[in-house]
User: Fold Family 43 glycosylhydrolase from Paenibacillus chondroitinus.
Amino acid sequence: MEVTLGQTYQNPIVLDQEWEDYGIGDPYILRFNGKYYLYCSTKDRRVGVKSWSSDDLVNWRYEGLVTEEPVSEGAYAPEVVYWNGAFYMYTSPAGKGHYVLQSDKPTGPFVKKTDNLGFTIDGSVFIDDDEKWYFTHAKFGGIMISSMFNPFTIDAGKQLNASLGHWTEGSMIIKRNGRYFITYTGNHVFSKGYRVNYGVNHESPAAAYTIPENNPILISTANDFNGLGHSATVMGPNLDSYYIVYHNLIGRSAEGPPVRKMNLDRLVFNGDKMSVLGPTHGTPQEAPKMPEFRDEPGAAPSADKWEKISSTDGGETLLTRNGTGSDYTAEYNFQVREQDDAPTLLETLFAYTDSKNYWAARLNGASMELALIQRVNGSETVVSTKKLPQGTDLTKLHTIRVETGMSGTMIYWDGLLKIEQTGEVAKAGRIGYVWPPGTQPSLHYTAFSNESYGSSDRKVVKPMPGTMEAVHGVQEGSPDILSGITPDGSDAISLSGKGDGLRYPVNIRQDGSYLLAVNVSKASAGSTVLIETNGETKKIKLDSTFFAADSDWTKIPLGVFELKQGTQWLSLHQLKGEITLRYVEANLTVPVQEQSVVKPNQVGLVNRFGGEWGWSDYTVSFELTMKKATADEAGILLRTTNESEFKDQVKDAFMGYALSFRNGKVNLSRVSYENAVEEATGSLTFEPGQTRKVTVKLEGPTIAVFSDASKEPLLRWTDPNAFLNGRIGLRGVSPDWAISPMTVGR
Assistant:
């Protein structure tokens, strides 16, 4: 099958009526009744909050100012939560503490309901399945989290370990498959290194988070695309996907600060691991998929979409003409009004075959309960029953979402998981509603998609450069899915039998040379993989010398492939041995010239860089002289990318390796902004006035350091999660040291 993008969009997304000379900053998207509502920060010294609406996350309509309260002057990062008929807006005007505003519509008008609550900036609300509310906000050194007693009352809270080593802001929590994912942004908002991290835990939104190794998930410091941050996460139109919305910086406004532009990229999940398919910029990408069925039946459902059946007792059944596939997610939005004191009773139907065979989520207004019902040959079984949230007003709009597939069936009430039945799988069938006499439902947005439990993550076209999870490939043969064996809580794929393989639909950003790499288990050493791109194939043996001795998993380079811009398939197949694969990575690369002398250009007071981000394997040689006895250090940087320089940021604002010389030692550290870890050390002594020649060889994931004419390395280290490309630089050069221009070769 040919890979096609279908409808496309392109970052940045430009909207009608953006704030003049400011743009879209700190975007937040609310999904309500099948539509999306976008809110953003207000330009300083302006009053009001702007909003836009969309059906598909791509095409947006300006809705005007949703509030003009005086307190909304310079409203920072407004976020809106819907609960039980009311919309609550949380914002910190001019960054001087939070206010709560309320409306009965997502487009306002929002009215101020509280005085200043404090809590710095960037407040975000999360409601857990147990109906407890939480509020997170920004702080130096880590995000704060507080319990909420009601939408207007927030306790003092505590600090989380969600930190970017400096001022940390722009937080948001979502819950997916029993896991809490928090995203947060750091570095100064005007720095190129503004970026997004995430953490995950299984306990509670206020528990300690594990910070996975694939952080940051959003970063770019390129001149034409940088300062990525203050993100929000929202469910996609197909009811299964998730998207991350964020801003980037460009140019300068008339008042000085950069202008902000809005971007949207796909999020994908693999167990505890969350990844962004991107960031993408300046090229068409696959637009969010719509559900197979969507409609708002209202009082007069369209006959070509719905079948209406009246019973003899005055009850009604409303069914879609089309049925679902075997795995699907369905959503029902409705309000219910009682007549003549009759109890409210409404069933949302799914897996409907006939009146005697179907499943239903039953709403009982008398007992205020939600039940999962199965009817087989006319015999009814109540599978599970749960109480509705306290204070639920059924005359307000509510949502039931049903997700069913191989893992079981889950029922959500207003986004909260209320019923989870493992192994209870509803089959294909029609969806709809049934209600008895005396119940008057107002039926709103209703939809189903033949996706569930993240199944669409496998089908989405993956942008390259980028990273692709093994479990998100289209499987061929009989690969095995291995759960719980990776250090980051993700699943892996074992390719061991004849014909076992994975195929990925990919969208190549530009013509060029791409370095492909795979993260595989130690047991995969010596196995042979067949790679196919552009109709060409290469057989590649996984070189055992590249595997880290002290790690069960290592990122192994497969070689450079010439790829053409546009869509195609990329496939991997097992030819020999067993290959246990976590993910595939692709990066643009450029060759190092046979011999280059590089004198890095100064771009900051601490770090100086030169060369190309696309450099991969190379050898660096230089002369290092200690002019006089000193405790200061000299250092060089290797394979650096995403460098940033700004007065308010972490000290080591880059990703790559740092090699330092001090007190007779040479130390190799792996650096990813706030995460700097010394990984290997060796001895190299200097006398005052002494000059030594130092040579560093970078080959695949291995770095070796030599001095003078010695053939034995001072140190050698294999990084199991290696940075495989990047340029070179100087670091913290003391006047007591001298480093010659660096000679770089293959």
User: Anything to note?
Assistant: DSSP finds no helices and 63 strands in the chain. The longest strand covers residues 259-270.
